[in-house]
Amino acid sequence: MPIASDVSLGRDVRIFQPDLVNLYGCTIAAETKIGAFVEIQKNAAVGARCKISSHTFICEGVTIEDEVFIGHGVMFTNDRSPSSVNPDGTLQTEADWTVVKTRVKRRAAIGSNATIIAGVTVGEHALVGAGAVVTHDVADYAIVAGVPARVVGDVRDRREMNPVATTPAGLPGRERRSVPGSDKDYT
Question: What residues act catalytically?
Answer without folding.
Answer: 55
